[in-house]
Each structure stands twice: as structure tokens, then as C-alpha cells.
Amino acid sequence: MKWENGIIITKFETGCRYRYFESYIKVWEIEKKPTLCQKMKQYASFTHLPFVSIVVAAYNSEVYIEKCLDSVLKLNYPQFEVIVVDGGSIDDTIHKIKLKIRTNQDKILLICNKNLGVSADRNVGIEASRGKYIFLLDADTLVEKDSAKELAQLMDADSKIGIAQPKILSLNGRKICNAGTQMDHYGWTFAAGTGENRWKYESPRELICADTTAVLVRKSILEKTGLFDEYFFYYYEATDLSYRIVVSGSKIVYWPKAVVRHKSGHVRKKKTLSWRLFSFNLYHLAFIVKNYKLKEIARFGFPVFLATVLSSLYFLLKRKADVAISILKSTTVLVKEFKTIWSKHLFVSYRIRNTNGSNTSVPFSKSLWNLVMHDLKSLE
Questions:
Q1: Closest CA to 16 of 234, 291, 229
Q2: Mean pLDDT of the chain
Q3: On the CB side of 116, how many CA atoms lie within 13 Å of its CA?
Q4: In 3D, which of 212, 257, 223, 246 has the Cα closest to residue 56?
Q5: Would the pLDDT of 93 be above 50?
Q6: Closest Cα to residue 334, out of 375, 301, 370, 373?
Q7: How far is the C-alpha of 201 from the C-alpha of 158, rounded, in Å?
Q8: What does pTM read for this prediction?
Q9: CB-based burial of residue 146 (10 Å sphere; 0-12 exposed, 13-18 middle, 19+ buried)?
Q10: Which of 72, 220, 75 is nearest to 84 (CA)?
Q11: SS3 content of the chain, % helix, strand, coil (to 5)
């Protein structure tokens, strides 16, 4: 790592740094909302807010990065730093970030990383951060000016909150992108409220998973649970981290008073369907093997594995051989890397679950297979 004109240049040859976690989680329902609201009212009278590190992960984001940083710099927040981690962009992203640095050297730090995935980029930014809280953002987001203040006040009002997620809207602010993520026993995850009117989902609630497109994270909890698992290159990295946060005894809360707008889906559109299905299926199965107990892997993981194989046959019948082959390839890669994933499973089982002595179960949502089938048909 070296300094060059106020910018950190690093190749960042990362080893996989894992701090594993209990695979079972318990999500506490907010049964005492008035208590939380009272705390918020009490805290609202305080003028001091803790230092926040805003970590923006960017990759080939030349179209969005300037507007994202403009919105961040306009935040109604007394003290913060901005750390932009570029994951090896080959477009004009870095140049546009440097232009912003010229006029905001005291606020913005650029770290140039290799293309190791969004998990690695976020980890680099977190390790370089100085704040009590870390505001994780994707480069294609726009933050409303009071969002950081709302989330920080919430976190300060309840020390058990490990992650606070804002309401995530479409870029034009009219529709909801994510109002909290739900997950069933099979590890299928879906965003609540997608495509619905922005004025819905106005009540705070606790979550199983957070959408790390935009979240405020308590840094001290990451010291306990570990950072993002860099094995998950594109999918399931947020679900994996969320599991650890909740199992550690902290909560994940959806807080709609804070709002962030997001250009949803533009990154996925740049990837081929074959690549997306390969990555999704591989990391979905890896997530289950890593975090579930043996009997749960058999009960919930096997049907997912079988569904993966059957979906490849489905695309083969639809004469999409490239897609079918990519799906089957995800299962073969899982088998090849099973030893690595299983070592993580053992670490979770014997170092975390047994040490904590916890036997809590996850209040999963109802089965989401109907939504899975709907999405599969929409890919035709």
C-alpha cells in the first residue's frame, strides 16, 4: 500500500479473513415500539452525533459516481469521512472521483483495489475507516440529506442494533426497491415492497436480512462477527453478514424515516443470464452448506440442489443450452470447493454454536417457492 497524491493505491492481496458465526438466528419482533420511539425523542434533543465513515463501493460507475458523491457531501451531518473503494474499474470512474477529491480533499479518500468482488471492496473500506458507524453505499445510490442523521440517532438510541437499513427507493423516488428482505427456510430471499408506492412500508420493523446497497453498521459489532465473507463474490454476501449480526445478539432494523434512492438492476443487466444463474446458484448452495446444521442441509439444502438440477433441464428443453450448462456448472464447482465450504461449516458448528451454547431458531418467512417459480418463468 502506498500514498500517491492523496490517494491510497493498493493491490490488496487479500487472504480470506473469516470470523464465523452461529448459523441459527433469532429475530426479535419489535414488541415495544413506544419504547424505541421514546428513546428517539429523547435522543433528538442531543446535538452530538458520532463520527461516521461513509464507504462507497464503485466499479465501472462513471455514470453514477459524481451524483452519488454530491449527495453524500450534502448530508445534514456534522462529522463524517468518505472512503471510495474502486474495484478495478476500466471506465472513467477513477478520473471522476479524483475530480471530486480536488475540491474535497479533507472529506474524500480513494482506495484503488483489484477486482476481487464487492465484499472485498467493502472490507478494504471498513478497515480504513475511523468512524463509530459505517454507512455502506453502492456507487449508484443517492442519499437524502437527513438519512445518516436518522440512522445514527436510531443506533445511538438502542445499543443492540447492529445494522440499520433505510427505505431504498427507485432513482426517481416514486417506487420502492427494498423495504427489508425476507428469507424462507430454503434460503430464498426477496425484497419487500419492490415496485410498490413509496409511501407504503412506513412502519419500522426488525429484519432477518439487510440490503447492503445502503446500510448503517455499528463498527464494534464487526469486530465481533467479522467482515464480509469474500468467498461470496456477487450474491449472498449481504445475507451472510446479516446472519452473523443477528446471531451475535444484535438486531437489524428497517427504519423508513431514512431514505436512499438506488438505480436497481443496472449492474445485473451488464451480466449474462448464464453468469448470473451460475453465481446465484453456487452462492445460494454455499450459504446453506456453510450455515445450516447437518439435518437442515439435508432437509432444506437437498431440495434446493435438486431444484438447481431440474432448472438446468428446464432451460435445456427451452433450447438455452448455455444457461443449462452454467447452472449445472455451479453444482460441480460446489462439489470441487466443498472441502473449503465444509471447513467453514465446521468452524461455525464447533467454534461459534457450541461456544455460545445457543439453540435459537430463525423465524423464517413462509415458503417463497411460488415467487421463485414466477422469477424462473420470467427469465424465458
A1: 229
A2: 83
A3: 21
A4: 212
A5: yes
A6: 301
A7: 21
A8: 0.83
A9: middle
A10: 72
A11: 45, 20, 35
